[in-house]
Amino acid sequence: MADDTGPTRAPLNTKWVVKMAVVIVALLLFAVLGFYDATVKYPARGERHASYAQWQYLDAARNANAEDFGVFERESSVNDPVEELKRLQNPETQLSTRPLRATMQEARKNWLEALKTIGRLKPEYTRFDSPQGKFDELAAQWGSTTSLPKPLKSYDIPLQWVILIVCLPLAIYVMLRFLRVRALKYTWDESTMTLGLPSGASITPADLEEVDKRKWDKFIVFLKIKDEHDKLGGKEVKVDTYQHKYVEDWILAMEADAFGPEEEVDETETAQTSEPSDQDAGDDPES
């Protein structure tokens, strides 16, 4: 790892780079799909359903003529769709006692709700001079179709905006984090076993008071520095060994040089705990 030109700089860990790339691409993909669905796909589907609902409404209004002659021409157009929808959605509103006219009112409510879902509950979409002409136009479009448009839920389009608002900032955050980690500089001088840290300070095995591995399973290690160190004395340095290559090996090499290999430490501790003390020996009657 070392060369003749100076300390070796730790490159980014390929596995971590791939992981970050996958996360960034996935978040950006969800953000793009959310934007497309909110602005193109769902509005188009909602518009098709609103058109079909309008045809159903005008057909119900034509049928209501059998109970109230002229209602189709008089009441098909809606001048104030917002107030009309409020009236029809009000639980206290009584529908007509005549079944065909009640069906017309229910169909009108469905049509206005479809327009509201796509943000078109406006007079320019609910007023027309010729109800019969509008009916013929819609009948030509929907009369022979076998694939009916699926209605939108009231939360379909807002949910896509939520996906965009959540995923895009997260993608930017992960990209910035990637750039920040990429700028971190760990170096290693094998001849002196000197580890250079991103802060600009450097440490050797003689500077280590303790190598705390309480989060080693998460690739995190805490280096407790001796008080004598000129920059980091008494401090604890947190190091992520997963983001950069070789850093874990360098720390283990420093630990082995400072405290001896882990196998030897374990054997020494085992021998100390298994060896009887003088007091224990004195308690033995035979001794």
Characterization of the model:
With 287 residues, this protein is of the alpha+beta class. It folds into two domains: 144 residues, no CATH class; 89 residues, no CATH class. The chain contains ten helices and seven strands. The strands form two sheets. Strands 1-2-3-4 form a four-stranded antiparallel sheet, with helices on one face. Strands 5-6-7 form a three-stranded antiparallel sheet, covered by helices on one side. α1 packs antiparallel against α4, α1 crosses α6 and α3 crosses α4. The longest helix is centred in the first third of the chain and has 51 residues. 21% of the residues are buried.
H/I helix tally: 10
Structural class: alpha+beta
How many domains? The number is 2
Strand order of the largest sheet: 1-2-3-4
Share in helix: 55-70%
What is the distance, rounded to the nearest whole angstrom, between the alpha carbons of the first and last residues?
58 Å
Name the quaternary structure. Answer: single chain
* Number of extended strands: 7
Largest sheet: 4 strands, antiparallel
Share of residues in strands:
5-15%
Which descriptor suits the 3D outline? rod-shaped
Please tell me how large the radius of gyration is.
Answer: 38 Å
Mean pLDDT: 90
Pattern of helices and strands: EHHHHHHHEEEEEEHHH
